[in-house]
Amino acid sequence: MSRYTYYHVLYVGMINIMMFVPTLLIRDRFNGAISGMLIAMVIGTIISFVMMACFEKFPGLGFPEICDLYLPRWFTTINSLFVGLFIWLPAGIIVIYAYSETARMFFYPDVNPYINLFLMVSAALWASTRSTRSVQFIHEIMMLIISPLLFLFLVKAMVNENFSWDAIRYVAGYVNKPPSFMTIVSATFLFSGHFSLVLFNRLHVEGFRFRNRWVVPLFGCFFLLVTFFVPIGFHGTVGVGDYVYIWSMTADSMIMEYGFINRVLFVFLLLFTGLSLLFVMNTWHTTIMLIRYVINRSVAVEEEPVPKMNIWLALGAGILSFIFMRFVNVERNQVISEIWLIARFFTEIIFIFMMLYFVWRKKKENVFT
What we know:
The protein has 369 residues and is mainly alpha-helical. It contains 15 helices and two strands. The chain has a two-stranded antiparallel sheet. Strand 1 and strand 2 (261-263) form a beta hairpin. The protein is globular.
C-alpha cells in the first residue's frame, strides 16, 4: 500500500513542471534560486520523512480523527474546515484554471474559455465524488499511463542536440547568492505529496510501514532540477525569462520521430491534461471528505452509490472555479498561487508539530497502559 503515497509524491512533482514553480524559480535564477533549491531539498526531505513516520503510528486514521483523539472537537472542526477550504480547495481551483487556459491557448485559442473550463470541471467533478478507495485506484491507473511517456520526454529533452549545458553551468555558478523566502517555499512544494496522508492514511491497515522512503527525496530532487534547468538549457540564461508559458514553449522546441509523434507539444499537453485533472480530483476529494467529517464524522473509504453530499460539495467547487475565472487573469493567478504556496508551507509546518505532539501523547498513553 505504500506505493500509493509515492504516487502522490510523483504526481505533485510532475504537475509542477507546468504549474507553480518554474516561473518563480526562473525569475530568481540569478538571485538565489540555486541556493534556495538546495535548502528546499533538505527541508522537503525532513518534512516528508517526519510526516510519514508520524502517520505510521496511526494506521487507518486520517488527520481529523487523530485530532479528535487528543484535542477538543471544536478545534478539529475549525482545523478541518480551514485546511479543506483554504488549502485543498484553492489548490484545485488554481490548477484547473491555469491549465484550462494553457490548453486553450495552444489547442484552440478562439474557443470561449468558459467552455474549456466546463469540460475540465465536469471531468474533475465526476472523479472527485468517487469513494476514497476508487480515487486511489484511478490515481494508480493514471500514473502508470502518464509517467513512462513523461519520463521519456524529459530524457529526450536532456539529450537533445539543442540543449545547452553551458547555460546550466553558468546559472549554477550563482549558488553563492542568498535565496528569497519565496524561492524556498515554492521549491519545497515539489516534496509535498506526503501531505495527502491527511486523508489517504485511512486506507492503511494495522502494522503498515513505509518502505523505500528514499524515493521521496529522489523524486523531489529530480523534478526540482528538471523543472528549473531544462528550460534554461533550451532557451538560454536570458531568453528563458521572456516566456509566460515556459514549459509549453520548451516542449514545442522538441520533435520526435516515433511513429505518429512529431511535435512533442501536443502530446505533452495531453499528458498534463490528465495530470491536472488528477491533481484536481485529489484536492477536491480531500476537501469533500474533510467537510463531510465536520458535518457527520464520515470516515468511509468505500461508498456505493456515491453520496449526494459529495455531488453537492463538488458542484460548489466547480461553481467557485467559474467565479475564479471571472475575476482573475494569468498574472493575478500567479500572485494568488504565491500566496497559496506560502499558506501551504506554514500549514505543513504546523501539521508536523501537531503530529509530533500526537505521537508523543500516544507513546505516553502506552507507557501507562
